Amino acid sequence: MKPTSIAAAAILAISLCASPAWAGSPDEHFVLTPALVQKLKAATRELGDIEETEAEKKESDKHRKDGMLPVEYYIRAIEAKPGVKAKLARHGLTPRDFGLTSYALVHGAMYLGMETAVDKKAAAEMMGKFTREQQANIALLRKMGPAAYSLE
């Protein structure tokens, strides 16, 4: 899995956040902290590009819903990768922390990225459909600035 795969998977999450089928999923109620954001960035740099095998691609395609890989499956896929748990542990993260933080961070970053592209009313309506936790994550990322959610 490439760090860009993390971003691509989570980008689609923003379109699903208000979907009743996804209501109450763990990633919708996960709260980011500045420490988690920094740990994720450091771990992502260390992980680099972890290629997905053809068998893994086929398996993940079976679990995608509306183009999105559910966070629980994503976490299991991370756990199954040899050596990844140890690398994450060096940064104080579990695969679950990594998966949930990734999804929450990209969701917030996507909202902030498109917020300026739509009118204020549409942005406010979209924000109103998010959970309190998602709203808090967006507020945190807004406060931390773009450096918090860039892949660099």
How is the secondary structure organized here?
Blueprint: H1 3-16, H2 34-47, H3 54-63, H4 71-80, H5 84-90, H6 95-115, H7 120-128, H8 132-144
Helix pairs in contact: 1-6, 2-6, 4-6, 6-8
Distance between the termini: 17 Å
Determine the fraction of residues in helical runs and give it as a percent range: 55-70%
Number of strands: 0
Report the β-strand fraction as a percent range.
under 5%
User: Largest beta sheet, briefly?
Assistant: none
Write down the overall geometry: globular
Poorly predicted sequence stretches spanning 5 or more consecutive residues = 1-22
Query: What structural class is derived from the secondary structure elements?
Result: mainly alpha
| Rg for CA atoms | 15 Å
Order of helices and strands: HHHHHHHH
Kindly report the average pLDDT value: 82
Number of helices: 8
Number of domain modules: 1
Structure notes:
With 152 residues, the protein is mostly helical. It has one domain (3-148). Helix content is 64%, strand content 0%. It has helices at residues 3-16, 34-47, 54-63, 71-80, 84-90, 95-115, 120-128, 132-144. The longest helix is centred in the last third of the chain and has 21 residues, at 95-115. It is globular, with a radius of gyration of 15 Å. It starts with a helix and ends in an 8-residue tail after the last helix.
